[in-house]
Amino acid sequence: MRITHLFVKRAHLIPPLLVQRFGVNQKERLKLICSCVDVLTLSATPIPRTLQMSLSGIRDTSTIRSPPPMRKPTVSYVQEFDESIVRDAIERELARDGQCYYVVPRISQLEEAQSMLKKIFPKLRVIQAHGRMARGSAEENVAAFAEGNYDVLLATTVIENGVDIPRVNTMIIQNAQAFGMSTLYQLRGRVGRSDLQAYAYFFHKNDFITEQSAQRLQAMADLHELGSGFDVANRDLEIRGAGSLLGTEQSGMAARVGFDLYMRMLKKSMRQLRGLDLPIVPRSNVLLPGGEGSIEWDDDYHGTNGDRTTSSAYLIPETYIKDAKDRSREESLARLAESTQRLVDITNTWKETYGVMPSELQTNLKALHLHTCLRQLGIDVVGIDEATGDCILRSPGLRPRHWAMICSQLPKGAPPKGLDVIFPARFTFSEEDTEITGGKRLDLEELLSNPKYSDDDEEWDALDEEEVEAMKEISSAVNIKRLSEIEINNYPRLVVKQLETVKTGARVDTLLKVLLPPSKIVYHKQQKDKEKAKVAAELREKRDLMTKQKKENEKNARRMGTFQYT
User: Fold this and answer.
1) Which of 56, 326, 487, 531 is the most buried (most CB within 10 A)?
2) How far is CA 327 from CA 301, 310, 323, 324, in A?
3) Contacts of 418 (CB under 8 A, 6+ apart)
4) What is the C-alpha to C-alpha distance for residues 399 and 159, in angstroms, rounded to an integer?
């Protein structure tokens, strides 16, 4: 993935690539480019400090694990250096009209490596690339290699990033024990960029190998599947440790209570501050009978009047908005609406611009309102339990503290009648599942204070693992075709009893009736938290400005005090 020169002025977005090449000070300096800047960090192998901040909840993270089509995992070999294996590897690649990379850790080792290659293959065409060449020379050499004029590119780590040559499918790394794990992973990523099988050889010298370098090389041998960068980063975190999240030295509370306890206290405070930190669900999968409530596209279906409208997908009829670009824009706006109120505002605009909406569109809008509510409540899958006829709404990230906070804001402190919630036993640290019945007034004080419903310190590690698993489940929910494909009893879930018996066409209305109140609570609470964060940021900026001005005034006063009048 390559994104260059991306800067969104209004959003103040700066995405630094190759985060492993940035130090802490450099990344902090980037944030000073403008106020309220957002930094999007993209990395195949995040450094341990960044990864630990993500795993501990200080930073949000998303993982892209889907490789490009037709790619194959690179076959990796880790062993002591052997010229005969080098010969076999290059011969096999040249036999299929391919090319090879040969990488060494130091520029001083290039000539020795080239002499060895020439001794094995006298007619081998070799070209070099390294960082001390004249300006433009390295780029010219790589370009000549990419054009097929040479068989082997002998280089240092300058080819670690930004080199994409599909014909090169063999990587040979000499003295691999001298490289870091992220560098080894990036170098291996230079091959296997086509549908051909790629090979990577990590040669080391036993006399120079250390315990950590042996662990790094073992990780490269073990983690060779496509999309394993996050697993490689995790292994690097295990080997090198998390680094200092608080600077070069631990000080203050962290030094007095210890780093582990400090992190636990930090996690607890973050959970209390975030409150309704339900995971983001980008797309809910509704599996009701007859496609009811679904907004999935169905290009093979056409309505009776020849429109592109479908029986299940949300689409604006061509007879209502005739211009194709305007229609596509308005459909996207509606699909991406973050709240039901935003949907109402959009439809009001349509009425003013295009006139009264057709009944078909009004019906389809209900499905959009449903999906908005589902995303707000962290629900990724909705379906009918064939055994009971109940509607099951899976919410992997829902926790008892979330539901208690939502119910405390509802009328009479009770969840909507007809909407039950079930938490598996592991989330309440009890022997049986906990069911909270809709319409029944809750003892919220007991629910919030009871240790079995809270994030107990002893169970934090398990809770963190559950949050990671919840995000994985949400990302794969779109691939589910039937509710029976998942072990629904293992997840937190909302239940609407006997929805199967409700008249076809009225099920979406039934779900909206019980889901709208709690979803509005979640949305308003999150908006309020955003406003608080914005005000806090503005106050912090003003305080920093006043502090800076004060220091400037004191500096000027001292300067004036040095003048003496005679």
Assistant:
1) 56
2) 19, 15, 6, 5
3) 438, 439, 496, 497, 510, 513, 514
4) 47
Q: Are strands 38-39 and 126-129 parallel, antiparallel or unpaired?
A: unpaired
3-state SS, residue 327: helix
Q: Which residue has the tokens 């590119």?
A: 153
CA 551 – CA 539 distance, rounded (Å): 18
**Sheet with 126-129, side-by-side order of all strands:** 75-80, 199-204, 168-173, 99-103, 152-155, 126-129
Check pLDDT > 80 for residue 292.
Answer: yes
The three-class DSSP label of residue 374 is helix
Q: Are 262 and 56 in contact (CB under 8 A)?
A: no
Distances (CA, A) of 489 to 149, 384, 418, 453, 493: 61, 14, 19, 18, 8
**pLDDT, tens digit, 9 for 90 and up, residues 199-214:** 999 999 888 888 888 8
Residues 6+ apart with CB under 8 A from 181: 45, 216, 219, 220, 232, 235, 236, 239
Binning pLDDT at 50, 70 and 90, where does residue 384 land? very high
Instruction: For residue 136, give every residue at least 6 positions away whose Cβ sits within 8 Å of its Cβ, in sequence order, or none.
Output: none
Q: Does residue 258 come out as left (phi exceeding 0), alpha (psi in the -120 to 50 range) or beta?
A: left
Q: Global pTM?
A: 0.53
Residues whose CB falls within 8 Å of the CB of residue 61, separated by 6 or more in sequence, listed in order: 54
Q: What is the DSSP letter of 415?
A: P
What is the CA 241 to chain-centroid distance, rounded? 22
Give me the half-sphere count of Cα atoms (radius 13 Å) on the Cβ side of residue 466. 19
Q: Are strands 434-436 and 420-423 parallel, antiparallel or unpaired?
A: antiparallel
3-state secondary structure 166-181: CCEEEEEECCHHHCCH
24, 409, 412 from 55: Cα distances, Å: 18, 31, 38
Residues pairing with 87 in the sheet: none
Nearest to 402 by CA among 371, 439, 444, 440: 444
Average of pLDDT values for 446-450?
Answer: 55
Has residue 543 got a pLDDT over 60? yes
Q: Which residue has the tokens 């938290």?
A: 529
- 136-162 pLDDT, tens digit each: 899 999 999 999 999 999 999 898 887
Non-local CB neighbours of 147 within 8 Å, separated by 6+ positions = none
Residue with tokens 């909206």: 512
**409 contacts 547 by C-beta, under 8 angstroms:** no
**Average pLDDT over all residues of the chain:** 78
What is the side-by-side strand order in the sheet with 381-384?
Answer: 285-287, 381-384, 391-394, 493-496, 420-423, 434-436
Q: Kindly list the structural domains of the chain, giving each domain's residue range(s) and its CATH number in brackets, ordered by start.
A: 1-42 (no CATH), 75-226 (3.40.50.300), 286-375 (3.90.1150.50), 383-500 (no CATH)
Tokens of 172: 């040979």
Q: How does 466-483 read in b/e, with b if 16+ C-beta sit within 10 Å?
A: bbeebbebbbebeebeeb
pLDDT over threshold 50, residue 457: no
pLDDT at 506 over 80: yes
**91 has pLDDT over 90:** yes
